[in-house]
Structures are given as structure tokens and as C-alpha cells.
Amino acid sequence: MIVHLIDGTYELFRHFFGLRRFHKSDPPLGAVAGVLGTVAQMLEGGATHIGVATDHVIESFRNDLWPDYKTGEGIEPALRAQFFPLERALVAMGVATWPMVELEADDALASAAHLAAEDHRVEKVCIWTPDKDLAQCVDGERVVQVDRKSGKIRDEAGVRAKFGVGPKHIADYLALVGDAADGYPGIRGCGAKTAARLIDQHGSIEQFPPQILGQNMERALLFKDLATLRTDEPLFRDVDELRWSGPTDSFALMAEKIDPRLAPRIQGLAARLESEAR
What we know:
alpha/beta, Rossmann fold, DNA polymerase, domain 1, 2 domains, six-stranded mixed β-sheet, 6 strands, 11% strand, globular
């Protein structure tokens, strides 16, 4: 089986700003409809096991570690208003959904990938997000990162080609170069090439000779902690909990308010699933 793990927050943002290019106003649940349509398209394409992680709130435990870490400040009200409806709609659609509060959606994806990869029945785990943080979860050609927008699939060789380091050193790399999207600056003087060279020479930041980072060592280790995704969240016990078996009874009514085309589309998928099971 192939397990598909989707960054629901990224998809919501992607659809929201994608719609804005074609509309003079923001459709109230337009981005939610877009995400559900994307999931439906994956099911139509043969996907059987799907999980979606969302940021129920943007803030996480990392804000306690670094005050400048990203927050929900500045998110447009029309977009923020679709966070909770997306989660409710996904659950009604019958999709395994993980709304994160203390942790981030990225941590949920990392935890789900770790759990799924432990199951010998799983042939491949596809993490659907371009977020560079998730590159640390890539493992050979079995756990890969998929960028829906570009269509690129990044395996372990692809991670090394892009960043100059392997997946196990992505957190070290991000600690040195920083991540503007997440709100930490990295270490002054450490650009991408310098970071990759230092990691290639010395390994993890903890192995750097003291003179390399000097007084910046403590800050670098803090940033590495921020960049390191947590993989121990017990999101499911069995990977078959991610198998889509059809929508709940509440989905049809909910879908009417989001996009009337969704209900018959999902009902058709459920009918096909039932027919195949006979």
C-alpha cells in the first residue's frame, strides 16, 4: 500500500491565494472546497490510505522556546475563518484528520510518516508538502516528499541535491541558514553553501569543533531544536486507520454549503468502493 500524508494548512493557503487570482472577492469556503477537491482527486486516482494534518492554531510549543517564532498574526480573516470548517469537513468526508495544537501540522506529518514506515505492508509514504522541514523525514525512495505545485518528487538523493546535505542533517542545515517562514534567523555568516560544507566536514552541529560557532553554539542548538520535527505523536495504532471507507452521514449536507458538486462526487467514490469490495 501507499500512504499519502497531506499538509492541510499548506493546501488551504494554496487554494485560498490561488482562488484570489481569479476572483474579486474571497469565496467564504472556497479554499475548503479546493482542499476537499484535491483529496477527492487523489481518491479518484486510486489513493486508499490518506491522512491530513492541520494547524488548529498556528502557535505551538516552539513559541515558548523562541519568542519570534511564527504566529497567526497577520493571517487574513477570510482565510482564518476557513481553518475549523476544513477540519470538520475532512472528518465528515471520512478522512483521517489531525488538528494540532501544542505541536504543528509538520510534526503530525513527521509522526505519521514514522508510524507508517514501521509497517512492512507500506510500500511507500508520500508526504505532500514543499516545506523544507519535512525533508528530514525522507528515507531512501520509500518515504518521499511530493511538491504538488511543481510535480517534483524528492527522495533522499533529491534532498541531497537540493540542500547539499542528507535528510538526517536537515535540522542542522536549517539551524545554520535559518528559516524566515518560521521566524528564526540562523547563524550570521552561514549561507547555504557554508552550512552544507560545515556539515559535510563535521557532521551534526553537536560535533562541530568549538571554534567553528564560538558563542553562537547555544543559539545554533536552539534553532536546531526548533527545526527538528517531533515523530512520537501517537496519531494511530494501525495504518489501516488511514484507509478511506466513505463519508459520514453528515457529509452531504455539509458539502452543499461548501460546493454542491462535492457530495455526488464523493458518493460516487463510495459507491465504487462498495462495488469493489463485493
